[in-house]
């Protein structure tokens, strides 16, 4: 019996099938530590790389797109399902993420979460809508980032610089925006900022420990500001 088990585990094709059934976190963190062959297989196997959302999975139809289950747990403010009219994730929501308990691990430039696709199959277009509200008027502008396979690193780096205690955001997933359908190949990042007044007290911004060491400025081709209404 032991010999049979050993034969199975030493056969790459069979081992690959077994590892592919592991919970995602175990496949990412635990399995590669068992031995060098397991570590090598986890890096070289297209099947396991797809299971870890490191490579696109064309076997999943666009209409049945799957969110990355590990990212849902690690970055909950980005995966809130809500079809209300206003962004709902705030500075406090970011600071309450698991990141706050292990900032050094998350901030690393080579942290694996940065390379992970947010969905399978990948999203290739991100619509960024920004709305600004002051005592005088409400304005908005929009930009589209195309030709990408949307990773969590890109989505995070795009969002974080906009956040302070007067800002909030929401990711509109496929089918949640009134302008798209479940089969649409774009996501919408909705950002809302209110003007700050002196009586609001000192400005509160996101602690630098929540910025990734690999973050770099990302160009968003915004259009002109459009005034929606005057107050």
Fold and architecture overview:
With 231 residues, the protein is of the alpha+beta class. The chain has two domains: 1-52, no CATH class; 60-230, no CATH class. The chain has helices spanning 2-9, 12-19, 24-34, 36-44, 46-51, 69-74, 91-95, 103-107, 152-159, and strands at 66-67, 89-90, 119-120, 125-133, 137-145, 167-172, 186-194, 226-230. A six-stranded mixed beta sheet has the order 2-6-7-4-5-8. A two-stranded antiparallel sheet has the order 1-3. It is elongated. The protein starts with a helix and ends with a strand. The mean pLDDT is 87.
**Helix count?**
9
How much strand? 15-25%
How much helicity do the residues have?
Answer: 25-40%
* Overall 3D form: elongated
H/E topology pattern: HHHHHEHEHHEEEHEEE
Could you give a short account of the major beta sheet? 6 strands, mixed
| Rounded Rg | 21 Å
Tally of strands:
8
Q: What's the topology here?
A:
Elements: H1 2-9, H2 12-19, H3 24-34, H4 36-44, H5 46-51, E1 66-67, H6 69-74, E2 89-90, H7 91-95, H8 103-107, E3 119-120, E4 125-133, E5 137-145, H9 152-159, E6 167-172, E7 186-194, E8 226-230
Parallel strand pairs: 4-7
Antiparallel strand pairs: 1-3, 2-6, 4-5, 5-8, 6-7
Helix pairs in contact: 3-4
InterPro entries: F-box-like_dom_sf
Protein name: MFS transporter
